[in-house]
Specification:
Blueprint: E1 2-5, H1 11-28, H2 40-54, E2 58-64, E3 67-76, H3 81-86, E4 92-100, H4 109-123, E5 128-131, H5 138-146
Parallel strand pairs: 4-5
Antiparallel strand pairs: 1-2, 2-3, 3-4
């Protein structure tokens, strides 16, 4: 396996990976709020690419046998006026997406992608890296904790109507 920067020739495989991730998220969503909208496959990866382009980010792909088996996208975090009021605002990176195809999970692909992104963000002089993880995704939480990440905030939800 090798890790490379995103290349346009892998666009369709990257879209497929994001769909695979979203289908998994839907399958574990105990609140039944996630969905695979009709334009998800065609638009989500492009939205992510724009985000990393606008925020000094990168997309790395894990390639094996000339096939994409994983991807990671990350960028620099932007702060707004509210952040500046109550937060020191160190230079921080943000992981937007990390997905490894089912067939390649638990084989070191995610760890290798994380290493590449962490190195890139360190080169950008980031002091921290943030990752948002779906609460019901226990395997992702365990993976990130093994990489040295920990919870800093918790987002709670309650259904109050039909």
């Amino acid at each position: 396996m090798k890790v490379i920067e995103y290349q346009e020739k892998y666009l369709e495989e990257c879209k497929d990976l994001l769909v695979e991730l979203e289908e998994y998220i839907i399958s574990i969503d105990q609140d039944n709020l996630d969905q695979l909208g009709k334009d998800y496959r065609e638009k989500m990866f492009q939205v992510d690419l724009e985000t990393i382009k606008e925020n000094n980010g990168k997309c790395f792909l894990a390639i094996e046998n000339n096939q994409v088996v994983g991807l990671i996208m990350g960028c620099l975090r932007k702060y707004d006026e509210e952040d500046l009021l109550d937060y020191k605002c160190p230079k921080t990176g943000r992981i937007i997406e990390l997905v490894v195809t089912r067939k390649q999970r638990s084989q070191g692909v995610g760890k290798e992608l994380m290493n590449h992104m962490e190195n890139y963000l360190k080169e950008q002089n980031c002091k921290y890296i943030n990752i948002e993880v779906f609460a019901y995704n226990d395997s992702a939480k365990n993976f990130y904790q093994k990489q040295g990440y920990h919870s800093r905030t918790i987002n709670l939800i309650k259904k109050v109507g039909e």
